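Hey, weird one. I pasted the Cytoplasmic tRNA 2-thiolation protein 1 sequence into the form twice and got a warning about non-standard characters only the second time. First submission, copied straight from the form history:
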Amino acid sequence: MPAPQCATCHKARAALRRPRSGRALCGACFCAAFEAEVLHTVVAGRLLPPGAVVAVGASGGKDSTVLAHVLQVLAPRLGISLRLVAVDEGIGGYRDAALAAVRRQAARWELPLTVVAYADLFGGWTMDAVARSTAGSGRSRACCTFCGVLRRRALEEGARLVGATHIVMEPTAGRGNVLLP
């Protein structure tokens, strides 16, 4: 069975069906609808006032990439300026590829990027060091707790360094806080 026609433009074939509305949309119409919904949410909620300097927590993953991209598209209409802030937790073999992705995104979008490292912020402590210090103590499962608290503090420090008035991040970056004035 062929894909249905897009319910919005009626020209292209639908690429997806939106779960909430059930509408079948092509890629272009889905992106336009998503951007319009984000714009409405930000404006209606007065989340990012004109003139805001917004630090976007950038991990290099899909969630923060979509967040940064949609805000970069909407920034001229919102009257805001963006700064990317990435955190280097100091996890060997884990963070390098993601930080490289963030650097590529920053260059592609011509956005300033600041990388803050746990080692610089916390007296040489990295997540690798935290994991080693808790190994065998029965507290090794607490690494996620340490990392969440330290990441939140690192994002706040990165935002301060770039002169941000607001921090925006995907929900898991700060354990659920999406917008912080």
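That's the output from the first submission. The warning seems to come from a hidden character in my clipboard, not from the data itself. The CA atoms of residues 5 and 11 lie 7 Å apart.
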